[in-house]
Design brief:
This protein has 4 helices and 9 strands, in the order βαβαβββββαββα. With 153 residues, it is an alpha+beta fold. The longest helix is centred in the C-terminal third of the chain and has 24 residues.
Length: 153
């Protein structure tokens, strides 16, 4: 019986720092057996990965899944492109946005949802250096406010 609920396996924390997230989708991911076992052990890295559309199908490129230790010759290439399972209309919409507006498709996290492997995919716009500084200043100010409120109360 698969477990109910959501268990986050890996997150791309750098994505929210480097990009403005405009829209997100949940997509299934097509994996081999040993890749699933390796991801369940937390051996997944989302650093520097992105998604692209090829021949009407969505693929995630640059996602590193370490080989399963007990997998022997069943192990696959850790960097192979993995197909994402999305509705055709969602793929078409994402592809049009990327082509027309110069946006990027970035995986934000990999998680288990009711026993199935899912990827949170975001349509992102790159941040400039001054945007990043703005966010850091806003975050610092918010932290100072919360600290002051805690000290008073």
């Amino acid at each position: 019986m698969p477990q109910k609920g959501v268990k986050v396996i890996a997150q791309n924390r750098r994505a929210r720092h480097d990009y403005f997230v405009l829209e997100t989708w949940e997509a299934g991911i097509e994996l081999k057996g040993t890749e699933v076992k390796s991801i369940r052990l937390g051996k997944c890295n989302l650093k520097d990965c992105y998604a692209a559309v090829k021949n009407g199908e969505m693929f995630v490129l640059g996602m590193h899944i370490s080989p399963y230790e007990k997998g022997s010759y069943f192990n696959t290439d850790p960097m192979r492109p993995k197909r994402l399972l999305m509705h055709k209309s969602e793929i078409r919409k994402a592809h049009q946005s990327v082509m027309q507006q110069g946006l990027a498709l970035i995986p934000l996290s990999v998680y288990l949802k009711d026993g199935r492997m899912k990827v949170e995919l975001a349509l992102c716009k790159g941040k400039k250096l001054y945007d990043k500084r703005d966010d850091m200043a806003r975050r610092d100010a918010q932290r100072d406010i919360e600290r002051a409120v805690r000290a008073r109360g």
